[in-house]
Automatic annotation (TrEMBL):
Protein name (database record): Phosphotransferase enzyme family protein
GO MF term set: transferase activity
Alphabetical keyword list: Transferase
InterPro entries: Aminoglycoside_PTrfase, Kinase-like_dom_sf
Species this chain originates from: Pontivivens marinum
Domain Aminoglycoside phosphotransferase as annotated: residue spans: 39-217
Amino acid sequence: MIRRRRARRKHLIKLAESWPEGMPFANPRLLRAKPAKTVLAVDSGRGPIVASFIGPESLDQRPEGVAAAHTLLTERLPAGSVPALIAYIEDAGLVITELVRGQTAADMIRRDTAHAEQGITAAAQWLSQLHNLVDRPDARHDTSGRVRAALIGASPTMSAEVSRLAKELTGVPVRHVKFHNDYKPDNLVIAGDRICAIDFRNTRYRPPNVDAAQFLTRAAIYALSVRDAGPVNRIGLPRSVTEPFDAAYGSPISTEPLTELYVLTNILLAEIKRASRPAIRRALLNRKGRHGRGLLALLSSVEATLPPQSTG
């Protein structure tokens, strides 16, 4: 709490020093306070806005890249698909954008199955538009470091399937597209007919499966935190998540081996992040509230669905 107050005070001073002339602001609220990124919501003459200070500690975001992504996507995607870029102050590492109000896909997924399907469908439609903006030539995509990290303490069943998928994909060229880099249900805001993605991370080029797997993993965790899985797919994801996503995306991307590999490693890496000692991970996850329970339920679903000791 003290650290958050200090961060708020420090960045309010920085915000006042960096703020564009002629744009009065008031009522700042601290949304995030981390060394890599501090975010404030502010009331201004342009309406509610978000002021993001992106520090040199950030590994996957640069202020100039975030500003460029907003500019590019504003030009190329349907109106309202991204928050309006209001200002970029290079010296301060400050990006100022519109604050988009509405319900997130995460809210909808946790609400009930009907709203969950609407949120998942909207998310897949938005992502399909992004991924179809630009295609680069197919190229190899190295997952070796990610796989090594994910296999630390993994169960034999998970370890065998991840290893099999990684071996199958080694050296295989895959499609590369513009990608969001943090595409989770929390970062898609739905307000009436408007579907808007927020919190870009430079939108570099990667396989589309990275975004799809990120969304599917989180959507499954959120769904399983409030309801039973029901029917599941080959790797244990609820079909209530994968089927509307694939239908709206326009292809069965959830069934592609690279998506499956990223989903499984997402689960394992999230588990490690929340409890580093394998012997007590599951007990700790039970104490992590709704998100931890959803992650534990997804992990259990995956392990119950995959063939035991699968070696391919």
